[in-house]
């Protein structure tokens, strides 16, 4: 099970930290990704962190503003979002898989319910 938290309303230019906490089997994962979806648009992969690979993937649309880190002791992945823009407004989802870093959210073995980020 994955549980996202940390979303909410924020002013443009502000910051938020999203958390993705894994429990039981979902904590034994190799790959964790954050996706976001704006209503009416395709879900976009924002960031991926792969255990054993030091450099996380960050989408060009958020590069320089978002950073991803994981705390394996807490089974939690964090998405630090700085300099937020109105176009970052979306539902943010985390997804995890024990074997592979997929490109699409639906392919991951474990998926969260999402947390809403609203930038105004």
Task: Tell me about this structure.
0% of the residues lie in helices and 51% in strands. It has strands spanning 2-5, 8-10, 16-22, 31-37, 44-50, 53-58, 66-71, 76-81, 90-97, 110-111, 115-119. Strands 2, 4, 5, 6, 9, 10 and 11 form a 7-stranded mixed sheet that branches. A 4-stranded antiparallel sheet has the order 1-3-8-7, with no helix packed on it.
Order of helices and strands: EEEEEEEEEEE
Radius of gyration: 13 Å
Helical content band = under 10%
Mean pLDDT: 91
Helix segment tally: 0
Per-chain topology:
Blueprint: E1 2-5, E2 8-10, E3 16-22, E4 31-37, E5 44-50, E6 53-58, E7 66-71, E8 76-81, E9 90-97, E10 110-111, E11 115-119
Parallel strand pairs: 2-11
Antiparallel strand pairs: 1-3, 3-8, 4-5, 4-9, 5-6, 7-8, 9-10, 9-11
Brief summary:
This protein has 120 residues and is mostly beta strands. It contains no helices and 11 strands.
Features:
120 residues; 7-stranded mixed sheet; 4-stranded antiparallel sheet; 0% helix
